Amino acid sequence: MNSIPEEATGRPLRKDAERNRRRILDAAGTLFAEQGLGVSLDEIAHHADVGVGTVYRRFPDKQTLIDALFEDQLDTIAGVAEEALAIDDAWEGLEHFFRVALEKQAHNRGLKELLLGAGISESGGCGPRGRDRIEPLVVRLVERAHDAGALRPDASPYDVPLVQLMVSAVADYTRDVDPEVWRRLLTVVLDGLRAEGHAHSPMPVPPLDRDGVLRAMSGWRPPRG
Amino acid sequence: MNSIPEEATGRPLRKDAERNRRRILDAAGTLFAEQGLGVSLDEIAHHADVGVGTVYRRFPDKQTLIDALFEDQLDTIAGVAEEALAIDDAWEGLEHFFRVALEKQAHNRGLKELLLGAGISESGGCGPRGRDRIEPLVVRLVERAHDAGALRPDASPYDVPLVQLMVSAVADYTRDVDPEVWRRLLTVVLDGLRAEGHAHSPMPVPPLDRDGVLRAMSGWRPPRG
DNA sequence: TCCAATTGGAGGACAGCTCTCCGTTTGATT
DNA sequence: AATCAAACGGAGAGCTGTCCTCCAATTGGA
């Protein structure tokens, strides 16, 4: 984020103000990652050991705070896509993109929500901005894999976000029980996405057990429609 | 549901009362299916052209209404698993279970939420009841497929609910844009789940296009944590 | 005709959110 | 040390949205 600690005015923030700004950003980062963009600013303020008023002086509204935090996280995802394109083998590249992008989303619920929906408000916010950078990279990643005959021919670039959605739904669901099982499902999906005639990849982690499934289920709350 | 139109008392409901009971059940069924268990009773009452009070006289609370509606829907899913076991070919059986169970969930958001979470309240409600019937059937379905060498050997019965979760997340996400794309993703997952050396199944429907993805994204609301 | 059953929907009680306001405290500057 | 703009905390206003209660008005059926 913006490492220059000043407002629109040229004057630098007072020492305590700057310290609190950091605290707020840290608390918000943690809470958004753990619980998603739904956390209230009251909660963030409390977790940052700061009054709500302080939060609102520094960030005029919630969206601004979200923007400040996630702007470069979206760039990070674009960066992953670029890394992936830099890998010579087309299939490995695609795999890399899925795996690493999903790792980030599995560790950060807020980022996942930002990537999947249009930001938090209907305004659209940062969704489009980040995605306009990411989309062409994904399209190239997929086309390249097609050209190399590595991807099943009937797969579309526009299946990619749906795969991300699918797997990160699992990551969300099982977060508190076993935060790594989503890797199994990604493995399955990738094997299903790959062109015919390749051996399956080994499952990277053991499955959930009966009790794990039950606990994941009972920890689940239906989303608001 | 209970087709005998009487309360705990032996007296049958007055004609208008019975008519309204049906209206409420119908409206609730529709709205739960479309929007999930989150819909308010006020909304249901309005959609049924009935006062809220009427709803509450007939169904003491929301959970009762949900139970009345979904009890047998859960049996239906168990029925699908039984159908699946009755199919000779183990792989076809498993495929049938996934496809048909997911069709039901894709058409009915409320059912999906009931299967995935522990009912609407922390009480557990109908979740466990239905699932105790379903689980052993799924285990047998999977074991049978393993014995037949049709399923990849490292797949576990407890991956099954996660697959359902994944695919129904797609169904939810794209419901308003193209309610059938989830079939593509199911195809991919099933191909990834099948033992090695089988040809891929053809994609049953065309992919989303760029605009479709965008519209799905903008229609998405982050769940409450 | 009559009355118990039924009805609609205003509104109480609660919960949770965003954001404002203002008396008090604090850091920097002189 | 004295001063004062800047920053602070947090009560609470104002909103939305839920579940559910209550009761005057209405209505089906004996």
Quick recap of the structure?
By secondary structure, chain A is an all-alpha fold.
Q: What Rg of chain A do the Cα atoms give?
A: 20 Å
State the separation between the terminal residues of chain A, measured CA to CA.
33 Å
The dominant shape of chain A is globular
Mean pLDDT of chain A: 90
Oligomer: homodimer
Second-tier CATH architecture of the largest domain in chain A: Orthogonal Bundle
Number of domains of chain A: 2
Helix and strand content put the structural class of chain A at: mainly alpha
Q: How many runs of DSSP E, i.e. beta strands of chain A?
A: 0
**Major sheet summary line of chain A:** none
Tell me the helix content of chain A: 55-70%
Residue stretches of chain A low in confidence (pLDDT < 50, at least 5 long) are 1-6, 120-126
| CATH class annotation of the largest domain in chain A | Mainly Alpha
CATH topology of the largest domain in chain A: Tetracycline Repressor, domain 2
Topology:
The structure is a homodimer of 225-residue chains.
Chain A lengths: L14 H21 L5 H7 L4 H7 L3 H25 L3 H18 L1 H8 L10 H21 L12 H15 L7 H12 L16 H9 L7
Chain A binds a DNA duplex (30 and 30 nucleotides) through helix 1, helix 2 and helix 3.
